[in-house]
Every structure is written in C-alpha cells, then in structure tokens.
Design a protein that fits this description.
It is built from 6 helices and no strands. It has 129 residues and is mainly α. Helix 3 packs antiparallel against helix 4. The longest helix is centred in the C-terminal third of the chain and has 25 residues. The radius of gyration is 16 Å and the shape is elongated.
C-alpha cells in the first residue's frame, strides 16, 4: 500500500519537516476541521448553506485522494494537481462558511496554510525528483 522505501529515497525539499511532525499536525487540523463543520452545521442562518457543505466535502475528498496519488501511485504531478484543487476548494469553503459563521471560517485558516505549505513541498518534490 504505502511504499516507504520510495518516499525515503526522495530528495527532500529544504523546509521539509521531520516525519514525526505530520501525525500531530494532521490530528490538530482534522480536529479544527470537524469543529468548524459542526459550528457551520448548527449555526442558524438565512443564508443557503448547501454550497458550503459541497465545497467542504469536495476539499476533504481531494485531501484524502492526494495521499493515494502521492504515496500509492507515486505520481507527484497528479498529487500536485489534486492538492491545488484542495487549496481552491478550501478557499471557497472559507468564503462560504464566513457568510454563516466567522468563527467556522477562521478555524479553517490554519488548515489552508498547511495545505499551501504542502503545495510548496509537493512542487519541491516534483522539481527535485
């Protein structure tokens, strides 16, 4: 499933964090994603929330698919494309959530920043390998 030898043999980008950082960061990010989504879900609003739900689940889908493209398929360019789509849909989600709850949108900012950092890493992996 996950070819750790392939990943370990990749030339690492300059600002690549150590592997042990990823689990706690993603735990934190998935927690704030869930909290943000719950606030959005329970917030009463005259605004139609359907587009926010769609963009949230689309970005989450791309987030999960990226792992398969990068680690299982070992297709760095495809992973980059998927990650860019995750970036775009996360930005859209933040805008949609903001119309209903400023707090739920602000909670997504660290997630977007991490995705943008991941995009930098993905581009760097593509250029270096």
């Amino acid at each position: 499933m996950f070819n750790s030898i392939w990943y370990k043999n990749l030339i690492k980008p300059k600002f690549s964090p150590p592997d042990f950082i990823f689990a706690p960061v993603w735990t934190f990010l998935y927690t704030i994603l869930a909290i943000s989504a719950l606030i959005y879900f329970f917030k009463r609003s005259n605004t139609d929330k359907k587009a926010g739900y769609i963009s949230f689940f689309v970005q989450l889908f791309f987030n999960f698919v990226w792992t398969g493209a990068f680690f299982m398929l070992q297709n760095i360019p495809l992973a980059l494309l998927i990650l860019i789509l995750a970036d775009v849909f996360t930005f859209i989600t933040i805008r949609k959530f903001h119309k209903v709850s400023k707090i739920s949108s602000l909670l997504l900012i660290p997630y977007l920043l991490w995705l943008l950092f991941a995009t930098y890493l993905n581009i760097s992996y593509m250029m270096l390998n």
